[in-house]
Amino acid sequence: MRKVLVTGFEPFGGDRVNPSWEVVKKLQDVQLSGVSLAVRQLPCVFGKAIEALNQAIDETDPLMVICVGQAGGRVDFSIERVAINVDDVRIPDNDGQQPIDAPIVKDGPAAYFTQLPLKALVNGLREAGIPASVSQTAGTYVCNHVMYGLLHRMTQSDCRVKKGGFIHVPYLPEQAALHTGTASMSAQTLLEALELTIAIALHTEQDLIIAEGATH
């Protein structure tokens, strides 16, 4: 049975938990839509995160990879459209690194677009009653770093991954309680959203043509 690899991150920036990993870890060895799910936790560290992702791809030989990360302050389940070839950060990673204007891949393309049917995903999630949107930026922290690394790996001739991309999720309620005025989403809703995302992405070959752009 072919596999789908799903990754989440360790906590960072002083948080005690990371919603991406709290949800992703519940999918270990789950069978869904004819595939078996494999999960990995990535370090929130530049360089090491891509190394861990590539190792996981080598170990699992997945047909699809979905990476998930925390975006405190986001209000919904955000499907990322694009990753850009730059690390430029305000806070250090978990190893104390703080790169500024550094390329992720030297001489790599300026950007890669997701290889997930992002508009079909957003439409399907909304129909299921789950707040979701297309995000036009994955930032320039470790999440964007990993998304770029994944999409770059997918361009290599020895890579058998057919679909891949990145999703940002809001705080869990217990995190939002410590950040007055920020949105949250329950772990159960996040889990349902992620399972639905995997199913839709596996079975969608042509994305929907609907407007999900941003004016600014």
From TrEMBL:
It is found in: Cytoplasm. Removes 5-oxoproline from various penultimate amino acid residues except L-proline. It comes from Rouxiella silvae. This is Pyrrolidone-carboxylate peptidase. The active site is at residues 80, 143, 168. Homotetramer. SUPFAM superfamilies: Pyrrolidone carboxyl peptidase (pyroglutamate aminopeptidase) (SSF53182). The gene is pcp. Keywords: Cytoplasm, Hydrolase, Protease, Thiol protease. It catalyses: Release of an N-terminal pyroglutamyl group from a polypeptide, the second amino acid generally not being Pro. InterPro entries: Peptidase_C15, Peptidase_C15-like, Peptidase_C15-like_sf, PGP-I_bact-type, PGPEP1_Cys_AS. Belongs to the peptidase C15 family. The keyword Cell inner membrane does not apply. Coiled coil: none annotated. Its EC number is 3.4.19.3. The keyword Transferase does not apply.
